[in-house]
């Protein structure tokens, strides 16, 4: 036999559909709770205890809640007994008072009217996600202020905290999930639907990633940057950079990037901090396609996975110090981070062979373990042969 606890759980599962019916203005109909009509207890005290429990929370006992319809049924062990054959909520009041949801529903109705009076086209969103109306029940005045502003200014081109909306400075940032869903409807014709970032999607300014690079050619440093050689600029500016350079060395590791200026003199060359998988920030730097690109990462699985990612943007990337000879020469039996990557990588045959060995043994040789004189020797030969 079904228990009062099971009846409550089943009633709670019907609550969202009930909320949807309020929005679509569907009249409340008798709400049936389906239960197991079979009865297997062989003890009369057990039977009486279960019947007493189910009746204790019924409308007959409390004046609200579920109604029980009984019928005389012949049982296997107890003879003929009155068993509940039907459980249902007869009225809306019975249902809501049983779930202690009357105040919540009143607030829900109030907010639904508030939302749809301002934006009738949000009714379908409310029907699909009524629980979100409740989750944000204390924020709807401010959420609607934000939506109204964007309705009248769909391409603001301002930072979030610059927007002239009378809400808390962090309100949009703290509620961007629900606001995003609403703006996708309210200003559908103006959203950048292929952009996931909130600011990009809704035509706002945003703090761009900074690209940090070092100018290894003193003449270029003096001519273009007044002698500055360690520079960080927004990615949009870096994408439009126009320098007389021929070679870019991308470092995964910040420690080695810091010491890049100790490398031999390198004409027409810059060193760039890739910051691991953040090399994705560089994918739209079109002028990279016409330069010599060198990538120096750790000799571990992640280093090669980042190289693969970078080469996916720029097939002309060549790896340096990521070979078997360097690994065997300086490996100190360090362990790395296990990789779960299963996709095919953009690696050369030799790189793939070393990657497989590293992955199987979880080995790692970090960049800073490679002596600087070994590095300098490589670049001296590189430029001597250039």
UniProtKB/TrEMBL annotation:
Pfam families the record matches: DUF3322, JetD_C
Record domain DUF3322: where: 4-184
InterPro entries: DUF3322, JetD_C
Residue intervals of the Wadjet protein JetD C-terminal domain: 206-376
Top-level taxon: Bacteria
The name this protein goes by in its record: DUF2220 family protein
Top-level taxonomy: Bacteria, Pseudomonadati, Bacteroidota, Flavobacteriia, Flavobacteriales
């Amino acid at each position: 036999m079904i228990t009062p606890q099971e009846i409550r759980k089943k009633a709670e599962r019907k609550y969202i559909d009930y909320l949807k019916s309020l929005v679509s203005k569907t009249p409340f109909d008798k709400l049936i709770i389906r239960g197991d009509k079979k009865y297997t207890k062989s003890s009369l005290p057990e039977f009486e205890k279960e019947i007493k429990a189910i009746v204790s929370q019924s409308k007959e006992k409390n004046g609200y809640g579920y109604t029980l319809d009984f019928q005389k049924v012949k049982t296997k062990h107890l003879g003929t007994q009155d068993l509940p054959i039907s459980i249902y909520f007869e009225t809306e009041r019975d249902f809501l008072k049983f779930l202690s949801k009357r105040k919540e529903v009143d607030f829900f109705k109030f907010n639904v009217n508030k939302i749809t009076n301002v934006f009738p086209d949000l009714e379908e969103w409310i029907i699909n996600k009524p629980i979100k109306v409740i989750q944000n029940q204390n924020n709807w005045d401010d959420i609607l202020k934000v939506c109204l502003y964007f309705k009248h200014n769909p391409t603001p081109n301002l930072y979030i905290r610059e927007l002239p909306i009378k809400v808390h400075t962090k309100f949009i940032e703290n509620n961007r999930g629900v606001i995003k869903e609403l703006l996708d409807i309210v200003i559908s014709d103006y959203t950048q639907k292929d952009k996931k970032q909130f600011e990009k999607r809704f035509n706002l300014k945003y703090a761009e990633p900074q690209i940090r690079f070092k100018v290894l050619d003193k003449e270029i440093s003096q001519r273009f940057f007044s002698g500055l050689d360690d520079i960080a600029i927004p990615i949009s500016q870096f994408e439009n950079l126009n320098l007389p350079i021929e070679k870019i060395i991308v470092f995964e590791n910040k420690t080695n990037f810091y010491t890049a200026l100790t490398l031999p003199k390198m004409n027409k060359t810059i060193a760039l901090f890739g910051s691991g998988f953040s090399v994705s920030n560089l994918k739209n730097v079109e002028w990279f396609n016409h330069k010599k690109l060198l990538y120096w990462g750790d000799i571990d699985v992640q280093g090669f996975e980042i190289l693969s990612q970078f080469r996916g943007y720029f097939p002309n990337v060549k790896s340096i110090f990521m070979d078997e000879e360097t690994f065997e020469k300086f490996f100190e039996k360090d362990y790395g981070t296990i990789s779960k990557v299963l996709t095919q990588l953009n690696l050369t045959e030799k790189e793939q062979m070393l990657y497989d060995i590293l992955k199987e043994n979880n080995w790692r040789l970090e960049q800073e373990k490679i002596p600087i004189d070994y590095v300098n020797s490589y670049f001296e030969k590189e430029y001597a042969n250039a």
